[in-house]
Amino acid sequence: MPDNPNSCVVVGAGISGLLAARELQEAGWRVTVLDKGRGVGGRMATRRFGGASFDHGAQFFTVRDDRFGEIVDGWLSSGAAAEWSRGFANAEGPRDPDGHPRYRGAEGMTSIPKHLARGLDVRTGERAVKVEQVDAGWTVTCESGGTATGGALLLTAPVPQSLALARSGNYALSDGARRQLEDVTYDPCLAVMALLDRPSPVPEPGGVQIKDEPLDWIGDNAMKGISERPCVTIHAGPGWSREHYEEDEKSITEALLSLAAEQLGADLASATVETSLARWRYSWVTSSHDEPCLVASEDPPLVFCGDGFGQPKVEGAALSGLAAADRLLGRAG
């Protein structure tokens, strides 16, 4: 049983989980954050190889909400984030800046979740496999055999994963909550990272935002300011990613390099030194829950949040985590 009713286990160390955890801890709660990954961040992910750094999940974020804006101002002041640009090229070519800032992590997108994780009890490499309801709260068991207990449980992973975890033990999720969670859907994204032996043909300021098929995005991580060596990230569109998701890495990589070269009008394959592939099964939210979080149980509290709730993308995920913390703290109805 949890030793403190004002305690919470957060599953998922993406931006939703970390912002919620910070809000709760600042209110005096004991918080434990579990994540299956080697590091924090979820899809705010930066990978390093060959002396280069690649943002291979979320590429940037924007700010429209005042509360999120205040948080981002703190990240900018602390050096965790930086402004990247005020517009990108599109499929038709360069376009004029629109005046709206696009932000990045200072040393890659993971700079921000690493900043948020400081001072929190974050346990990485811990895959949660079972949730059990106890009289006064919850016990989460990990694949390693370790456990975490809390008076409240916050599930922030992509909804299909969170739903499976919620149903893994003795807790009976209500039919209404289950149906609402099953309505949240995602598209996948295949992401190729390519280390180059020369500067890429990606135009300033380092991004081509295509938002189409078969390609969604091409980004130059050196021009972006996070890599000392020239390297690009190529995101396939959701349809192409779904069709080719299970193919072998070599075939996917060759195809996306060829498609990117066609988009940019320059050969990429001959400049490529080394590659890596990321398969994001739950990348784009295609159908979200209307509210910024879902309270599945009031006593003991069980809350679902993440980018599948309310608004999409980084800002939406952040606001969802804040909304979940508000609910647990009694700051929202």
From TrEMBL:
InterPro entries linked: Amino_oxidase, FAD/NAD-bd_sf
Start and end residues of each Amine oxidase domain: 103-329
Any one Gene Ontology molecular-function term assigned to this protein's record: oxidoreductase activity
Domain of life: Bacteria
Stored Gene3D superfamilies: 3.90.660.10, FAD/NAD(P)-binding domain
Protein's name according to its UniProt entry: FAD-dependent oxidoreductase
Lineage of the organism: Bacteria, Bacillati, Actinomycetota, Rubrobacteria, Rubrobacterales
